[in-house]
Specification:
There is one protein chain. By secondary structure, the chain is of the alpha+beta class. It has 2 helices and 4 strands. It has helices at about 20-30, 65-75; strands at about 5-10, 35-40, 50, 60. A hairpin with an 8-residue loop joins β3 and β4 (about 60). The two termini are about 15 Å apart.
Length: about 80
């Protein structure tokens, strides 16, 4: 199957180490001859793409998360 791939990560993910995961997945996909892999890493985001700031009472979704997905889908 040849489909585009979008990998999303939060830079502060404590469950999935970003760089080892990104490298392994990209290498696995490219080893099949496919090259369409986009990677987006959201600064400050956790595993659920949330960020907690001291001045805010509740965590919020990292900036650009939804826009990034919509843009990627629109550009397919």
């Amino acid at each position: 199957m040849d489909v585009p791939v979008l990998l999303l990560y939060g830079s502060e993910d404590e469950r999935v180490p970003v760089e080892p995961s990104r490298r392994a997945i990209v290498a696995a996909i490219r080893s099949t001859g496919k090259t369409s892999v986009d990677v987006r890493i959201f600064d400050g985001g956790d595993h659920t793409y949330r960020v907690r700031r001291a001045e805010e009472a509740w965590p919020r979704t990292v900036d650009g998360y939804l826009e990034s997905i919509v843009e990627w889908l629109r550009d397919l």
